[in-house]
Structures are given as C-alpha cells and as structure tokens.
Amino acid sequence: MTETGTRTSIAILIFDGVEELDFVGPWEVFTMAKLVGAPISVFTVGWPGEEVRCAKGLRVTADYAFADAPMADVVIVPGGRGTRPLAKNWDFIGALRPYLAAARFQVSVCTGAGLLGKTGFLDHRRATTNREAFDFFRECAPLATLVEDKRWVHDDNVITSAGVSAGIDMSLWLVSYLFGEIPARDTQKYMEYFPEPPFGKPAA
Q1: Closest to 120 measured CA to CA, from 92, 89, 143, 87
Q2: How confident is the model over 136-168, as pLDDT tens digits?
Q3: Residue 203 forms part of a structural domain
Q4: 155, CA 20 to 30 Å: which among 75, 107, 147, 193?
C-alpha cells in the first residue's frame, strides 16, 4: 500500500515527549532522498492530536492526528521520555498495533523499540535500542533478543535502531535497501552527513 501511486509512503509518529532528533533525523533523510529522486512520500502522525511538545521543548504540528492518518508502507516510532507513559497507555497500544500491522515495515528509533515491543512486533525477533534503556526494552519486549552492540538491527520486516543519531544511519540504510545504493549515497552527500566529531581539533 502507498499513499501516492507507486510512491513508498513513510509515516513518522510523534507524541508529547518525543526526542526531537529521533524523528527529525529520519525526516531529513527521507525528505532529502525524495529530493534526489527516490519515490517517497513522508508525513507525520501526532498522538493523539496534531499538536505535540517534544522532549526538549520544541513544539510541532503533525500532518495528521492519529485517528485521521493514512496507512503507510513504513511506520517509524521514535523514542524519548514520552515512550514511558505511552508504554502503559493501553488506548495508545491498542490503536498503534493495527496501524503497524498494516505497514510493510515496522521501524523504531531509540526507545521507540519499547513501544514496538508492547505491541508484540518484537516477539521472537532481534532488536536494539538506546544503550541507556536496555532495562526498559526488556520490560516492554520480554520475548525479544536484545542486540547491544549494533547501530541498527534488521529482522525481517522489523527494523530497530539505537539511540537518537542512530536513526539517521538506519534511515540511510533503509533508503539503500528500498531504492539502491546510489540514491542513498546521494542523500548522504546532500545532507553532508559524514560524522567526524571535532573533539580536540582546532577551528578551521
């Protein structure tokens, strides 16, 4: 299923307490991939409504409230401190489960893996999350196998990534997986995403 013709539709879930880079990083990757020619449509889905206050205070208006959101080929569930109350919110978990089930790929960034775990999508799968949230992961996904030393893990139709910036790496890999290496490398080039932290280096 796609939102627009043959385009791959990507829904990014946002909610109060979502970590900003967890969803903005993938948003940047997929929208940049669209600019370089990948057949993608991307939209954000707010829970429960469009207006969201993020973990660091950024206020965002989602494209859709959850109840009105189109189905998507890829659903990305980011992390942040807001995942903890949502993991105990059975109205949310009950609504998220069929939305994820309708997608081709179920994807998480950081502690979003806990929400995938609560919906059952990590049962008997390998997955990862933020290294500071392993206990939360085990609580939410007791039937999953936690991979502690990978930036992202691909297990069939489920893709999980580690903390915050790992979502960018995972998204670039997913562009490559879906559309080939050339658009992924073009996306990386146009983003100028070549991480080299300048610790101890003089300013240019």
Answers
A1: 143
A2: 999 999 999 999 999 999 999 999 999 999 999
A3: no
A4: 193
